[in-house]
């Protein structure tokens, strides 16, 4: 079930020796088997925070790249929110030109090591892959994300990365609020045009959700720091512990600091709760707080943590998205004996990536379907003691196309837990809206922007990422950052 990396590499080397140097037909490429990626054994990985997926070997990445048909219409590119020339970089990977492959990627994306790990490729580029369509199985598509990860890692580890070109000084300056994926993409593209770019981060580390939200075992933080260092080498200034909306308002960035334009990428950091009885008990966490404590504050370092984590034995996680999986798997690594995902629908409706669900199951996470939390019951000490759940059934489809969850009266029961993690989504950060006149927002608090430019209702102010989309993927946020940067470059040229 979990083949060793060496065995996979040996098989790939034999196949590579057979295929290398041949002019392969489309039919021959279609017959090349999908390369499996090695992972840590579940019994080992629940005891550490090291990366679960171990990546391709060099032989594997070249074999996987050979599976690409180099379609002239490039359907995979249509599925990439930042428009990477996917066939071009895969062709270079097939030849072993990894630095060239990365340079092609970085024309569109500054974060290949990140995106190769956390992007839902199966819902984006790989969903449009001709190979997957021919086999009628998206999981048989060319593994674009795994190839991207390998070439980015190889280039970084061998010191082959090049700093993107920066144009002549334009005399214009741009403020970037937040340092997540949308902000990083916007900052890179704006700096390429020669603008002075200053990135403001409220926390003591830059990276946004890449740092505080995604666990180390999915995205090592040294990789995020490396990508941010590329930004710094391009000349982007990063100011930490700087809360725009308090330290400076948007108006003050214009009037006092003299910025010509502003990009807001402050994210969706306001956690939602269920508003049920007992939700203020000791031992109830938002997924945001739980993951931030573990990831940013390194609470998983049990003997050397500045902010120790709450110790739990039995953990209930409400929700079924990627964040819920991250929280559940983190709790397991922090020593919980039982971790339950409580979800009001079935596995078919779960929004989490299939890979993350599979990894969670391998790690012993319990999945309780068609159950909804009704109340949280604390003990005499005020700490979570039990969760009352009620059985559900699926009804007609809702506006999102998923079947509604309907509670079945009289089916309540109690389950013993000492910790609850609420992972049902986040709302947009409300601070900038509260301190800025004239910013139009939706009823959900997200910024309303021009879909073609990401311009807000205020002149010179643009926005993208979760502050516009709500909680979305890394690559979708990056796409908005790039779209905004293009429009901002045009706007700045008029000043």
* Class by SSE composition: alpha/beta
Strand order of the largest sheet: 5-4-3-6-18
CATH architecture of the largest domain: 3-Layer(bba) Sandwich
The proportion of strand residues reads: 15-25%
Give the secondary structure arrangement, pairings included.
Blueprint: H1 5-19, H2 26-30, E1 38-39, H3 42-45, E2 53-55, H4 58-66, H5 75-78, H6 86-95, H7 98-105, H8 112-118, H9 130-134, H10 144-157, E3 173-177, H11 181-192, E4 196-200, H12 209-212, H13 221-233, E5 237-239, H14 250-255, E6 261-264, E7 270-271, E8 284-286, H15 287-295, E9 314-318, H16 322-333, E10 338-342, H17 354-362, E11 366-368, E12 371-378, E13 384-397, E14 403-407, E15 413-416, E16 419-422, E17 426-427, H18 431-435, E18 461-463, H19 466-469, H20 474-493
Parallel strand pairs: 3-4, 3-6, 4-5, 6-18, 8-16, 9-10, 9-16, 10-11
Antiparallel strand pairs: 1-2, 7-17, 12-13, 13-14, 13-15
In short:
The chain is of the alpha/beta class and about 500 residues long.
Describe this entry's structure for a reader.
Helix 6 packs antiparallel against helix 7 (98-105), helix 6 (86-95) packs across helix 10 and helix 7 packs across helix 10 (144-157). The termini are far apart. The radius of gyration is 23 Å and the shape is globular. The mean pLDDT is 95. The protein has a 5-stranded parallel beta sheet. The chain folds into 3 domains: 5-157, Alpha-helical ferredoxin (Fumarate Reductase Iron-sulfur Protein, Chain B, domain 2, Orthogonal Bundle); 173-269 and 427-493, FAD/NAD(P)-binding domain; 273-424, 3-Layer(bba) Sandwich (FAD/NAD(P)-binding domain). The protein contains 20 helices and 18 strands. With 495 residues, it is of the alpha/beta class.
